Amino acid sequence: MEIPLLTPCKMGNFQLSHRVVLAPLTRQRSYGNVPQPHAILYYSQRTTKGSFLISEATGVSDTAHGYKDTPGIWTTEHVEAWKPIVSAVQAKGGIFFCQLWHTGRVSSKDFQPNGQAPISSTDKPPKPQVSSGGWDVTEFPPPCRLRTNEIPQIVNDFQRAARNAIEAGFDGIEIHGAHGYLIDQFMKDQVNDRTDRYGGSLENRCRFALEIVEAVVNEIGADRVGIRLSPFANYMDSGDSNPSALGLYMAESLNKYGIAYCHMVEPRMKTLGEKVECPESLVPMRKAFKGTFVVAGGYDREDGNKAVDEDRVDLVAYGRMFIANPDLPRRFELNAPLNKYNRETFYTSDPVVGYTDYPFLETTA
Ligand code: FNR
After folding, report:
1. In the chain, which residues have pLDDT < 70?
2. Whole-model pTM?
3. How far is the CA of 70 from the centre of ligand 1 (A)?
């Protein structure tokens, strides 16, 4: 019987052999923001011929980081360090996009050049965040609101990062417009309190995101560009009063640029918690967007197959399951049992444990 997730799919100029995508996953093992050789094994373990992978979120500039040891792509050293990782993935036939990230106000002076305040659309910090384990609270300093005339520089940073990603050999880039980071801080009306042309109406709040889309499309071509959005999520204190309208406006507006894909996070993932039933849906955005539609958030084999079969999605990105199961497409093919993920090792700096030591299925060949 055909397994919908394992059928081929054309995404722009890319021919994918199946629909099980590696979701972007921060692992905090890029010491000093430089991608490390251990990422070669990590990514290539998760590559199959014709598979689509999205890299962990990668900083576009020296103001873009908010977490220790997340990779960058703004210096020659970063570009050179990415090259062997990208070529290992491509040697196995993978198609690899780099997720471009700016954390905005989800940062602190420790991560900023000269200890300055992080930038944002606003000068309000996010509410203190309790860690998923519940024992740790992170507080954020008040950010520095970007002046209108400073915004083009940030757009340029994304454009340069896109150019660098292509220089590093990536097949394309994904703009990280989700989860309460800088781009989302502009889109969401519970964060953005601006009165210039980047605040107020939906059109104004989405202007920054769409300027970035336009800039990277001009730089590297629409076929190499995707964007990730989470209109329904309020992660990092980033709620919106009308997330359906926001998601739909973005899906429709993106058509103008002809980008390869739109990647949306399911509303049931209001936070990175467990799956809950939810009356809201991405179907209107799927219908509005003309390119490849990628979804993520709480999918298992059965949900993913059903969503593809019912034509609600083209591709499904898997996060936690792919961390714990480097051979996830093969396990889906065989309906084999899955390794359980260990949350404790998601973000440690260990180059092996919880990173490249999850077991593969034993082969019978
Ligand atoms: C994430 N997620 C995430 N999202 C993103 O856009 N960029 C990123 O770098 C990260 N980093 C990250 C790290 C870890 C350890 C987790 C668990 C999650 C969110 C991720 O891509 C995905 O949307 C969620 O994990 C939900 O999908 P699953 O895990 O239910 O398949």
Report:
1. 132-134, 269-277, 364-365
2. 0.97
3. 14
